[in-house]
Amino acid sequence: MSLGLQKKMSSERIPLLSTPVNRSNSVVFSWQEIIENYVRPCCAEFLGVALFVFIGCTSVYNTQNIVGVAIAHGLTIALLVTATGAISGGQLNPAVTLALFISREITAVKALLFVLAQVVGGITGAAICKGVLDDVAYRSIQGGAQDLGKGTTIGEGVLCEVMLTALLVTVILLTAVDPETKSTLAPLAIGFTVVVDILAGGTLTGASMNPARSFGPAVVSNAWNNHWIYWVGPGVGALWAVFIYRLILASPEKRFLRLYSSN
């Protein structure tokens, strides 16, 4: 993700998926290009999500209240976006990666690699949480896995995740991506968004907004009840946010109508 935080590539570095190096009439990609444009960013996404899921899951046990959980998630994501932004853009969320791909901010290849790194990172973070907590503590929070709250229907849960994710992605696009509105305070804005989203929807769905955050604990604790909601809701929310952004909120050169009129 650019997230507006990614450092500009030097003019000497081979651009992403651009002209490959030609040696002895064979076409190969530079190792430096592969490491800098793929390996290093994927490692940042993996590590960032692993830490985020670990902190998120353990905070559920240690704080025992929604305010503490919200603050733990929000502060952690703000710190990790700041730390990884210049390497991978600090996406740390498959829904955010989807939004940036649809917005033409990253390539399909990098998007797929990032999602894979994020999912594996989520599993790793959840596994570390299981290793840290004793069996009683771990089972008391279902390994940090998320499910619908008491009395919340499937339709309400999906809509809740759509709305929460739409807010998060909108804030990311406007504070970290769009050239006219992006701000150096983007990590803080994103962290605050996570906090208010959890305060609003935590008791309804767990306020995932992030399929990797939900998938890791589900795998490790084998808790799959209503799990599909945590992929469909954030995915639809991300698409909705991108549509509104590209329709009217984006700077002129990024709007749909501007693109159509120029063809």
Name the features.
10 helices, globular, 263 residues
Secondary structure: number of strands: 2
Q: Tally the helices: what do you get? A: 10
Low confidence ranges: 4-27
Report strand %.
under 5%
Shape: globular
Helix content range:
55-70%
Q: Alpha-carbon distance between the termini?
A: 27 Å
- Mean residue pLDDT: 88
Q: Strand order within the widest sheet? A: 1-2
Q: Radius of gyration, rounded?
A: 19 Å
Structural class, by secondary structure, is mainly alpha
Largest sheet: 2 strands, antiparallel
Give the SSE string.
EEHHHHHHHHHH
What this model shows, in words?
The radius of gyration is 19 Å and the shape is globular. It contains ten helices and two strands. It has a two-stranded antiparallel ribbon with strand order 1-2. Helix 1 runs antiparallel to helix 2, helix 1 (31-63) packs across helix 8 (211-221) and helix 3 packs parallel to helix 9 (229-249). The protein has 263 residues and is mostly helical. The model is unreliable at 4-27 (pLDDT under 50).
